[in-house]
Amino acid sequence: xxxxxxxxxxxxxxxxxxxxxxxxxxxxxxxxxxxxxxxxxxxxxxxxxxxxxxxxxxxxxxxxxxxxxxxxxxxxxxxxxxxxxxxxxxxxxxxxxxxxxxxxxxxxxxxxxxxxxxxxxxxxx
Length: 125
Known about the structure:
Layout: H1 2-19, H2 27-44, H3 47-50, H4 54-76, H5 81-84, H6 90-93, H7 104-121
Helix pairs in contact: 1-2, 1-4, 2-4
């Protein structure tokens, strides 16, 4: 039932998608947010279920745009600066990372060599 109702307001959602940019949101995310908004609107105003007049479309457009503007504000807020950074797989950028020391196996080999060297020091008299 919600899908049928959503088809009537889908154009409003996709027009907003062209007007606003939300990082990491794909088309399906916009559709999902539109369906949630429509569901909340129909829960608050059950009379729109039977009679979809001009006022219904105005309510939906206003409610959906406000919801998107809230998401844009959240995205752009200074406190959420880290949320805006793109995710990069470490294995893809490992060549750019500084090494902070020896790898575990190199460290183990070095420790073994030092023990062997130290044990040989006392025998040379």
